[in-house]
């Protein structure tokens, strides 16, 4: 599994690889959290359920990351772990986000993400692994 | 000429055209304004986005980009598109996540000599204005306050004691879009917006102390209330999480609408609906509400700045007048000359500033003879500029001009090649004090990651999309 930052002039473009779709969604959420808060280690003090459906897997990724961003910002949470199951037909994600409360002294130094963009959002399956490209507006 | 300019036609000293056919489905050409020097940094992705906008239904005249054009998402940054109100569409991709991200400029009677304790002033401002990721408002707002704010915009702030009546005359559209419909703003957006009112945010948002170090047009500068040698304060921020959530919500809504109305799109971020459709009207109402939140937000921040400077220097709000406040991520219904007749169109400005010329509707009476004040921020180490709107902008770009310098280096590249602490020290040697949550934020926004604001503004002036009034040199910066 890997999270790679690609060149993009204005915003943050990531290429993320994982062996399964479930792992791909977890790694994408991890990239989002690391952008927002840099240090996303525990202690894990709680978990929050998440369950979403969409018309296709790209829309599912958009909805999922947008929801993780919303939950983090609205409820002041830093998510450290992701226990997710992603299904293909119908495209759906279910599971829980594990994390802790936002600590201004520790977590305020990250980059604010305004939204997840559909531009350049691609999920490909190649050589037994899934590859996502996704742009965060910052 | 760089490879990215392949297929581009030169139509003037600073004017370039993307012919129909550059990408399939274009209904009109693309047109952009750049000096030859600036073409070297233009990305192919930005041109493709400019062409993509030209495929949208009901686009009038051409898809436009200003001299700060660069690669974004949906529309390019610096992009402008005007759409027929009957045949045309409205798209969150033409506004962006940070609805009514904008800039305001406040004048002061202070001079640089008054900033002897500049570090202390910056520190007081940093403490007064919540800044950075996770910052929370010090205002105590209820849900009713928020709803009123979404409808009344900057007026809400003034009536709450966060400004004076004259401030409203110095905001684009008097700090309010009357089309706002708070009922179209989701509960999620309200939840994000409530604790963030009056916060600066992060990224490229800033609060800057500047000195007016050159006046190009004395008469207009005097009319705008700007005097050489005085200190000014520039505030750059937008609609915070509320606006971000409105965009997120409506991309989903309009994606479904795009399919329902049979609109073919080259980029899903351009999800759209006919302006006069239930989905289009809902987005427009919610977007206008978020724009009003942003005007109230900048008003609240300016109030905190006035409190800090007022207390330290014994100044009243009347001593610290607002020069003007402009939006640079917005969609508005305006009347423009299109081909040979005046038409009401929906103008999308994505990283572009309204630049209404002399006599244009909506300008305060005392500014009408000169045109609208246009504020173009630089970066931490490069100057910002005050211009005035022009008749040329009205006739060529739907009354629009650029919104800044435009980046040339990615954030990852900036972090790789620049050390925040060194950037901070170099700026300090130039007399610019920077306060930020951390050094990485300084590296990402270092002056060298942006195009030369001077060259971008020179092109604007030469083409006539704005006329130079004054230059402002940064002396102290708070980065979000």
What does this structure look like?
The complex is a heterodimer of chains A (138) and B (480). Chain A is built from three helices and seven strands. Chain A has 138 residues and is an alpha+beta fold. Chain A has a single domain, classed as 3-Layer(bab) Sandwich (Archease, Possible Chaperone, Chain: A, domain 1), CATH 3.55.10.10. In chain A, strands 1-2-7-6 form a four-stranded antiparallel β-sheet, with helices on one face. Chain A has a three-stranded antiparallel β-sheet with strand order 3-5-4. In chain A, helix 1 runs parallel beside helix 2. Chain A is globular and about 40 Å long. In chain B, strands 7, 8, 9, 11, 15, 16, 18 and 19 form an eight-stranded mixed β-sheet that branches. In chain B, strands 1-2-3-4-5-13-12 form a seven-stranded mixed β-sheet, sandwiched between helices. Chain B is built from 15 helices and 19 strands. Helix content of chain B is 33%, strand content 25%. By secondary structure, chain B is α+β, with helices and mostly antiparallel strands. The longest helix of chain B has 36 residues. Chain B starts with 8 loop residues before the first strand and ends with a strand. Classes of the chains: A alpha+beta (138), B alpha+beta (480). The interface between A and B is large, with 39 and 47 residues.
Q: Gap between N and C termini of chain A, in Å?
A: 24 Å
Task: Name the poorly predicted regions of chain B.
Answer: none
- Percent range of helical residues of chain B: 25-40%
Cα Rg of chain A: 14 Å
- CATH topology type of chain B: tRNA-splicing ligase RtcB
Largest sheet of chain B: 8 strands, mixed
Outline the biggest β-sheet of chain A: 4 strands, antiparallel
CATH architecture of chain A: 3-Layer(bab) Sandwich
Outline:
The complex is a heterodimer of chains A (about 140) and B (about 475). Chain A is α+β, with helices and mostly antiparallel strands. Chain A has helices at about 20-35, 55-75, 105; strands at about 1-5, 10-20, 45-55, 75-85, 90-100, 115-125, 130-135.
């Amino acid at each position: 599994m890997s999270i790679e930052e690609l060149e993009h002039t204005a915003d943050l473009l990531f290429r993320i690889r994982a062996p399964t779709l479930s792992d791909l969604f977890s790694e994408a959420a991890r990239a989002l959290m690391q952008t927002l808060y840099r240090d996303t280690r525990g202690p894990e003090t709680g978990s929050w359920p998440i369950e979403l459906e969409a018309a296709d897997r790209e829309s599912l990724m958009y909805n999922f990351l947008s929801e993780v961003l919303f939950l983090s910002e609205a409820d002041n949470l830093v998510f450290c772990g992701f226990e997710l199951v992603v299904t293909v037909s119908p495209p759906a994600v279910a599971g829980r986000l594990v994390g802790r409360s936002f600590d201004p002294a520790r977590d305020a130094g990250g980059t604010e993400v305004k939204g997840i963009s559909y531009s350049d959002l691609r999920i490909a399956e190649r050589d037994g692994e899934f590859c996502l490209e996704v742009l965060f507006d910052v | 000429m760089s490879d990215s300019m392949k297929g581009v036609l030169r139509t003037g000293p600073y004017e370039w055209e993307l012919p129909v056919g550059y990408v399939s489905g274009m209904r009109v050409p693309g047109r952009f304004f750049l000096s030859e020097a600036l073409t070297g940094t233009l990305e192919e992705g930005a041109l493709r986005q400019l062409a993509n906008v030209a495929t949208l239904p009901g686009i009038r005249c051409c898809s436009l980009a200003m001299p700060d054009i660069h690669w974004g998402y949906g529309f390019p940054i610096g992009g402008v598109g005007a759409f027929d109100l009957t045949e045309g569409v409205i798209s969150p991709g033409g506004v962006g996540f940070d609805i009514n991200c904008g800039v305001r400029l406040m004048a002061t009677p202070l001079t640089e000599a008054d900033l002897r304790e500049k570090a202390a002033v910056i520190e007081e401002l940093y403490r007064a204005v919540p800044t950075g990721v996770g910052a929370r408002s010090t205002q105590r707002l209820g849900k009713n306050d928020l709803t009123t704010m979404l409808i009344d915009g900057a007026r809400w702030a003034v009536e709450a004691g966060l400004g004076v009546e004259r401030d409203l005359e110095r905001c684009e559209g008097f700090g309010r879009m009357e089309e706002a419909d708070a009922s179209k703003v989701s509960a999620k957006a309200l939840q994000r917006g409530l604790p963030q009112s009056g916060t600066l945010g992060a990224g490229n948002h800033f609060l800057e102390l500047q000195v007016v170090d050159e006046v190009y047009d004395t008469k207009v500068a005097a009319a705008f209330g700007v005097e050489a040698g005085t200190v000014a304060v520039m505030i750059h921020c937008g609609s915070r999480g509320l606006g971000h959530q409105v965009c997120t919500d409506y991309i989903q809504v309009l994606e479904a609408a795009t399919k329902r109305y049979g609109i073919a799109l080259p980029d899903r971020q351009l999800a759209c609906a006919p302006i006069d459709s239930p989905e289009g009207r809902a987005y427009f109402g919610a977007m206008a509400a978020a724009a009003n939140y942003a005007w109230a937000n900048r008003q609240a921040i300016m109030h905190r700045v006035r409190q800090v400077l007022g207390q330290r220097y014994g100044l009243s709000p009347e001593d610290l007048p607002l020069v003007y406040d402009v939006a640079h991520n917005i969609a508005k219904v305006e009347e423009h000359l299109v081909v040979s007749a005046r038409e009401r169109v929906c103008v999308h400005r994505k990283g572009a500033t309204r630049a209404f010329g002399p006599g244009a509707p909506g300008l305060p009476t005392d500014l009408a003879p000169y045109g609208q004040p246009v504020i173009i921020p630089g970066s931490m180490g490069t100057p910002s500029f005050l211009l005035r709107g022009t008749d040329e902008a009205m006739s060529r770009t739907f009354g629009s001009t650029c919104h800044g310098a435009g980046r040339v280096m990615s954030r990852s590249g900036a972090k790789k090649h620049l050390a925040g602490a060194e950037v901070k020290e170099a700026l300090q040697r130039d007399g610019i004090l920077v306060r930020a949550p951390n050094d990485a934020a300084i590296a990402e926004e270092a002056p060298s990651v942006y195009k030369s604001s001077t060259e971008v503004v020179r092109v604007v002036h030469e083409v006539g999309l704005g006329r130079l009034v004054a230059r402002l040199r940064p002396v102290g910066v708070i980065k979000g």
